[in-house]
Design a protein that fits this description.
heterodimer, A: 78 residues, mainly beta, ATP Synthase, domain 1, 5-stranded mixed beta barrel, B: alpha/beta, Pyruvate Kinase, Chain: A, domain 1, 5-stranded mixed beta sheet, 6 strands, elongated
């Protein structure tokens, strides 16, 4: 899957990932390959990302919204 | 006849002025580049947010629409004028102030109550001494434009709109075209029009239809709540883009003005040097004549 984390000032992250976990308004959730189309609002918190090399890392976000479709994740944050 | 010493000092002072203007031109050029980068880097964010909104918008019945998108009848209008904090940028501020004044006056004539939010010391200096109601000034947002500062101000505007203090918010600013061209425009910030402004206007509508047909997203939380989060974000973003445009225009205008000033100084320097040399030459000629004349007297 392709993950893009974009803020108005810059592209925070762009890359191929295996798993993304994020702090949704209605609770934390994870996204794996072939997830159904989804739009969700997010709270302040951290996004957990695991890439193909099994590296796990966290990216802090300040609220936002995410759109998942056709294995493309676009996360808009502040 | 010109006084030689006077001309010399003038040449020196014009030279140093030229140095300053050309340095200011360089500074503006680099600031302009920075502002342009800002405009470019906000584009992907803006594009994504727009597609999300245009996909979501038709899913929601009119009575549940976000308050910031619904126009309402009301006589209170807030006009935001964005000029610059510093001068020396040609007609940039003058034109903007004139346009704002024109807009405000025509609104008052139509029976609206107008208050002003002024961004930029130059526009404040103009309206201060006139009988218009200034709600507040916010010069600091122009100093190193950041999304955070812009958002704070945008949220304030939205709160005032939500509490029905104002029924419309207009923004007068310069839209950036290129380094030498700015377009003076008046945009409605609130209520934000569903028809999304910007360069993608032409292909925005078929895209929206497309989205509507294949709109099959799982939404979390409900569409309405979703819209309530997205719309304020969109308003902030819109305001941020406006400020970036204004700042790029300002630096563009200053760069052009300083370029012209430098050119003028060079021109002036040329003609001054020429007349200086002429005077100097005629003085030398005169001195030689005097010496020759004196020598002739002695030789007799």
């Amino acid at each position: 899957m392709l993950l893009e984390i974009i803020s108005p000032e810059e592209t925070v992250y762009k890359g191929e990932v295996v798993l993304v976990q994020m702090p949704g308004t209605m609770g934390s959730f994870e996204i794996l390959h072939n997830h159904a189309p989804l739009m969700a609002t997010l709270e302040d918190g951290e996004v957990k990302v695991i890439d193909h090399e099994r590296n796990k890392f966290f990216i802090p976000i300040k609220g936002g919204v995410v759109k998942v479709k056709d294995n493309k994740i676009v996360l808009l944050t502040r | 006849m010109l006084n030689l010493k006077e001309v010399r000092t003038r040449i020196a002072s014009i030279k140093s002025t030229r140095q300053i203007t050309s340095a200011m031109k360089m500074v503006s050029a680099s600031k302009l580049r920075k502002a342009q980068n800002g405009i470019l880097s906000v584009r992907p964010y803006a594009a994504h947010l727009k597609t999300m909104l245009s996909g979501l918008e038709p899913q929601i019945p009119t009575e549940e629409k976000n308050q910031f998108t619904l126009p309402r009848e009301g006589k209170n209008i807030l006009v935001v004028g964005i000029a610059s904090n510093k001068g020396l940028c040609g007609t940039y501020n003058t034109l903007l102030v004139k346009r704002t004044l024109l807009h405000v006056n025509s609104l008052i004539q139509e029976g609206y109550k107008v208050k002003l939010l002024l961004i930029g010391k130059k526009i404040e200096a103009f309206f201060q001494s006139r009988e218009f109601e200034i709600l507040k000034t916010a010069h600091e947002v122009l100093e190193g434009i950041s999304y955070e500062k812009t958002e704070t101000l945008a949220r304030e505007l939205m709160e005032m709109y939500a509490s029905e203090t104002y029924d419309r918010v207009d923004v007068v600013y310069n839209r950036f075209k290129n380094a030498v061209m700015q377009e003076l425009v008046i945009d409605q910030l609130l209520p934000v029009s569903a028809e999304i402004p910007g360069e993608e206007q032409k292909n925005a509508s078929p895209k929206a239809e497309e989205m509507q047909q294949e709109f099959s997203y799982i939404l979390e939380p409900s569409p309405k709540e979703m819209l309530d989060t997205l719309v304020p974000q969109y308003v902030s973003l819109y305001f941020y883009q406006i400020l970036l445009d204004a700042s790029a225009s300002e630096h563009g205008a200053r760069m052009t003005a300083m370029h012209q000033a430098t050119d003028n100084a060079t021109e002036l320097l040329k003609s001054l040097t020429l007349s200086y040399n002429k005077v100097r030459q005629s003085m030398i000629t005169r001195e030689i004549m005097e010496i020759v004349g004196g020598a002739e007297v002695f030789s007799r």
